[in-house]
Amino acid sequence: MHKLLIVIGFCLVTFLGVISCYDEHNTFGDRLVDSDLRNISMDTSTIVMTAVLIDSLETSGKQVVLAGRYVHPVWGKVSAASYIPYVRPQYSTEADVTVKFDSLMLVLSSSGDFVGDTTLQQRYSIHLLTEKIILNDNGYLYNNSSFAYESEPMASYSFIPRPHVTEKLEIRLPDELGQDLLTRFHNHDESVAINHFEDYFKGIVIMPDEKQSYSLLSFQVSDSLSALVLHYHIEGGYENQQKLVFSPNTTTQFNQLIHERHGTPMEPYPLKKVEIPSEKLGNRGILFSGIGWYTRIEFPYLNNIMEQGEYIHIEKAGLKIYPEYGTYSGYNALPDSIFLYIADENNVVTDAVKDYLGKQVQGGKLVKDDLFLGNTYYYFDVTKFMKDELGTSGKYKHNLQLVFNSDDYTKTLKNLTFGDPNGQHPIILQLNYKIYESY
Question: Pfam families of this UniProt entry (predicted)?
């Protein structure tokens, strides 16, 4: 139902389905002094929403390990595995001494980002890669890339995640692998020479356990983080503790994400090159990083308000996006920021919806109501976009794309589920405009 705005006096006029009040003595602009204006406020403009799947996301070189599994209450199960190759370390121990192997450890340092139930025990399996990781011709690897690895894990590790603290996992890998690496380095074996090392030791893949994985966690990647640390000592008059650090290859390390859609509204649709109208998704829009969903928002009948008078001036336009209750929680927090971009008829982005100064990209303001969760929403000021869009048609018409930033898409599993105009908590476009009756 159209909302009523009282400006001066109280009156009711029905025109093209818009309920309004007007001031018979209002004026607008120097050349419009002698004419009446009506001030309209409405929030029932038709909005069309479409979920769009990005074909592939670049996940190589992002310096983050994603590993685990998360089951979303609407969109199904998302699993993440991280492929980590390593660069050859510098080995400086003299060949004429005797070295003794102690241990080989995989060290993972939490970044604090997570989705899922972290109160339950998590289990990872570590597999040896059997295929060397090589970038595609364009220099990237993607969320759907994969390389061969041994079917049997060489190690497994169970733990209770503590995402809100700086946590370091130390996973012991087989002594046989560590001893073999130490022996080859100490003997200056050709297989571990700088030009052959990654052909000999291709790296590892961290997989979530099929039966014991309830959250998806993020770990840091750098020279000393997500590293393999080989501990050994030199025999002699006293024990000389040493370590050989295998740093991850930050260029070719990447994360693979698998979306299992069985039993969800997405199940009938392809895994690539798909656009799904919101009514086919239970009257919902979706953003989902990692697997690459964003939502296109269109206003096909905006120009209808031009039929209400000789001249229309949009004074204020605001877009409210309401997260669907039950799709977010302490285990799946609402994103701090979401963004709107402007796209042309071919869905090519032409600009961003910026702040009122027109300088910075506008992040949707999250207005939280912890008492009445249905009153929680994201707000965008889209006044300039609506002013520019009014009166356009055909190839000059634009749509809005609701997205995360690129880092969120490729380094996190942030997600947002929200209602379309027929949803439980409908998206709303609030329009305030003036109608100039005649010249």
Answer: DUF4270 (PF14092)
Taking residue 363's Cβ as centre, other Cβ atoms within 10 Å add up to: 17
Amino acid at 25: H
CA 89-90-94 angle, to 5 degrees, is: 135
Residue type, 81: A
Q: Among residues 412, 413, 406, 411, which one has the least CA distance to residue 63?
A: 411
CA angle 134, 229, 115 (to 5 degrees): 70
Class of domain 38-55+272-436: mainly beta
User: Where in the chain do CATH 2.60.120 domains reside?
Assistant: 38-55+272-436
- Asked if pLDDT for residue 238 goes beyond 70, the answer is no
Amino acid making up residue 129:
L
Spatial CA neighbour of 286 closest among 304, 274, 268, 303: 274
Tokens 């041994």 label which residue? 150
Contacts 24+ apart (CB under 8 A), 355-358: 355/381, 356/381, 358/384
Label residue 63 left, alpha or beta by phi (over 0 means left) and psi (-120 to 50 means alpha): left
pLDDT in tens, 130-165: 999 999 999 999 999 999 999 999 999 999 998 777
Report the distance separating Cα 75 and Cα 414, nearest Å: 13
Report the distance separating Cα 269 and Cα 278, nearest Å.
13
- Is residue 368 within 8 A of residue 376, CB to CB? The reply is yes
Residue 83: Cβ-neighbour burial (10 angstroms; 0-12, 13-18, 19+): buried
The predicted-structure confidence for 178-209, as pLDDT tens digits, reads as follows 999 999 999 999 999 999 999 999 999 999 99
Q: Tokens for 337?
A: 């920021």
Q: How far is CA 24 from the centre of its chain?
A: 50
Q: Of the candidates 270, 291, 277, 265, which has an alpha carbon nearest to the alpha carbon of residue 404?
A: 291
Q: What is the pLDDT of residue 29?
A: 43
Strand, coil or helix: 22: strand
Tell me the whole-structure pTM to 2 decimals: 0.87
pLDDT digits (tens, 9 = 90+) for 265-306: 999 999 888 999 999 999 999 999 999 999 999 999 999 998
